[in-house]
Specification:
It is built from eight helices and four strands. By secondary structure, the chain is α+β, with helices and mostly antiparallel strands.
């Protein structure tokens, strides 16, 4: 096995190991970065929904208080306002969604599904936790969801959701008495859920990963070519000349030119050693010839 083949075998194994390790670590980095971006989008969307709810409670509901006594106005309900806001957003981004999932809702559209109920129960058993993040396969594809607990902390909520007798008549006319009552202060009744698609960020991460690996492969290939050129001109070609010189001298051909090699590296030291050996053989042969003539 020649020196070049041994050198390339070692370099090839090292290059494959480096490429695979870099690919693994880069995939983790790009995918984690993509997930972080999805979570950031979900949090922005959730903060927007919370802001709309707060705006509705503080500014819209007081303005419509008089009208609400005569007719139930869903625009005064924070959950309705937040859902309508996201509904407008969905016209441009249909894969994004928002829902306030509740065990015992006034509006049947807000009733919690099985997987949403699991999140509510999780918050009920983890009262110190303020956020839940998970992934699931939705109808539109892979999605990440972010949930915030809905807990009854304001006694004013019980004016509409405490007992049927205390509830506004206009609300009863709108939704009836089937649900949305019997809530208690401090009770974990539901969860705010924002769903954000993961396909686009993950596809972008895959493309970025492919670009990175192509670049890394090109760099490794370029380095291998450069190292082979250096090996050829700095090691193999000089060693080949030295070997040919040594072979010629060992076969008795003493009238060959000495090797000219500049520098102070190991190859130059080898060339000087071969030259000294060459001169020593010439001197030895001359001494033998003079002894024979005598």
């Amino acid at each position: 096995m020649g020196l070049r083949l041994k050198f390339n075998l070692v370099l090839g194994i090292a290059a494959v190991i480096i490429f695979l390790a870099a690919s693994y670590l880069a995939r983790i980095f790009f995918m984690e970065d993509a997930k972080a971006e999805v979570i950031r989008q979900a949090r922005i969307m959730m903060e927007s929904a919370v802001a709309v709810r707060s705006y509705t409670v503080k500014e819209v509901k007081p303005l419509l208080a008089v009208q609400s006594r005569r007719q139930f106005l869903p625009q005064t309900v924070p959950a309705y306002a937040a859902s309508r806001y996201v509904g407008e957003l969905q016209k441009e981004y249909p894969d994004y969604s928002y829902k306030e999932a509740v065990f015992n809702p006034t509006n049947p559209a807000h009733r919690a599904q099985d997987w949403e109920a699991d999140i509510i129960n999780w918050f009920a058993s983890h009262r110190d936790e303020k956020e839940f993040i998970g992934e699931r396969q939705a109808q539109t594809g892979a999605s990440l969801y972010l949930g915030l607990p809905i807990e009854i902390t304001d006694p004013k909520c019980l004016a509409c959701h405490g007992t049927v007798a205390d509830a506004p008549s206009t609300m009863l006319e709108q939704y009836g008495t089937a649900g949305g009552f019997g809530w208690k202060l401090g009770e974990m009744i539901g969860v705010q859920l924002v769903t954000v698609p993961t396909s686009i960020p993950y596809q972008q991460a895959e493309r970025a990963l492919q670009g990175f690996m192509i670049t890394l492969g090109s760099v490794i290939a370029t380095l291998l070519i450069l190292l082979n050129l250096m090996l050829h001109f700095i090691v193999i070609r000089p060693v080949r000349r030295i070997a040919m010189q040594a072979d010629a001298v060992s076969m008795g051909t003493l009238n060959v030119e000495e090797i000219s090699y500049r520098g102070s590296d190991e190859i130059a030291s080898m060339a000087r050693s071969v030259n000294r050996m060459h001169r020593s053989l010439i001197n030895a042969m001359e001494m033998l010839d003079s002894d024979d003539r005598e």
